[in-house]
Input
Amino acid sequence: MQQETLQSHFKRGVATLCILSLLSEREMYGYEIAQALDSISGGRFILPEGTLYPILYRLEDDGYLDATRIRVGKRMTRVYYQISENGQKYYATLLEDYNSIHTGVQLILTHGNEVNGK
Output
């Protein structure tokens, strides 16, 4: 499997968690979220618009995000997303699951290194 494909699988798996993490700090609009992911990760987590916006729409449809549409300029509307109360609960559950899985993976990798004498 190509490196890009592997990274895209990992990104898709944690994108919702990362987006909710950012929005738990403050409201943001889509482009701002994409820039924050890129900047905070040091360029290691770039989420294309074609991936980001469907996640935002799904989270909004599921009641995890609230969206406020604000007109900027004559014709442009910017959508600011903020995490809802249900979204905070969902984020806490996702974070707990992620931490548990991460711990399990680390244990497996450590075990593998011990077995192989590393």
